[in-house]
Amino acid sequence: MAWNKIKIRIESGETVDAIAPVIVSASRATDIPAFYADWFFNRLQKGYSAWTNPFNGVRSYVSYQNVRMIVFWSKNPAPLLPYLEVLKQRDIHCYIQFTLNNYEDDGLEPHVPPLDERIDTFCRLVDVLGKGKVIWRFDPLILSDKTGVDELLEKVRTIGDRLYGYTEKLVFSYADISVYKKVTANLEREGFRFREFTQEDMLCFAKGINRLNQNWGYEITTCAEEISLEDDYNIYPNKCIDDDLMIRYFSSDKALMDYLGVQYIPGDMFHPEGKYQKTKNNKDKGQRLYCGCITSKDIGEYNTCPHLCAYCYANSSKEKALANWRCHQKNPVSETITGR
User: Fold this and answer.
1) Which pTM value belongs to this model?
2) Predicted confidence (pLDDT) per residue in 250-264, tens digit
3) Which CATH architecture has domain 19-48+65-241+284-299?
4) Cα angle for residues 139, 171, 209 (degrees, 5° grid)
5) Would you call 24 helix, strand, or coil by DSSP?
C-alpha cells in the first residue's frame, strides 16, 4: 500500500520525507509495550520516529499525525497501563494482542513475568479498555519430548479457565520451527528437544480445543495457518490487524472508517438497525500467504527484544538483542528504538 507521504522537521532541524500511516503495529518485530513503552509515547508526543529497514539498512521516518489506531503486541503489556489515558486524550484507539502462554515449566520464556502476574495484567487491561479489546494469544504451540498434544491442551485450559469472562477470543498457531533456521539453532542451543507438528497432531489439538471451548464459548482462531479447521472444529483464520474488529468497536471514528473503505447502510424494515459495509479489500499483501491482517505500518525492529524467548524468530541471537537493548538504555529518547 502506498502510504500518504508528508514533509516533517526532525530534531536535527532537517526537513525529511515521512510516511503518515493511519494504523500502526507496535509491534510484530519486538515487544514495545514491555520494554519500549516510554520510548514509544515519547516519540508519539514528538510526532514521529525513525525506522530502519532490516533488509537494506535504510532509515525512514514515520509520522504519527494521521494515526487513528494502534495495535499493540506483547507478552507483558503492564507498562501500557499508565499510558492508556494518554491515548484517550489524543483520541487514538488501540487494542492489544496479548501473548499469554504457559511455558513456565519448559524454560522457553525465561524473562516474562510469572503466569499469575500476566493473567492479572490481562484482567486489569480489560477493566480499562473493555472486553474484546484485549485478545488472548497462545502462540506458538510447541511440542517437545516432554510435551505432547494432551499436555499442551492442559496448559491452554489452565489459562482459558482463568480468563473466562475477560476474553472473547483465543488465537493460536502451530510452531513451524524448521522454517526458521535461527529458531532451530536457538532451541538446539538451549538443549530443547522440540518436534514438529504433524497433521495428525494439528487435528488432535483442534479437536481438543473445540471440546474445551464447549465450556468457554470463545471465538477460536488460528494465525497464518494453512490447515482448514472450520467445518469440523469451528476454528477460523484470524486477522490480527483486524478491520472487522475496528468496525465493531470504533465505527464512530469517521476518519478510520473512511480509510478502511467502510460505508454505513441505513436500516430498512428487514434490517432496522442498519449495517456497516466494506467497499475495499484491506488485506496486507506484504505478509505471509495465510496471514489475514490488513495493512498497517510496523514500527518495531528485529534483534531488540530482551525477553530472549528460546523460540523467538525476531532475534537472530541473544547477544545482538541485548546489545541493542543496552544501546537503547543509553539513549532512551532517540528517534530509533535502538538508540542509534
Assistant:
1) 0.96
2) 999 999 999 999 998
3) Alpha-Beta Barrel (3.20)
4) 95
5) strand
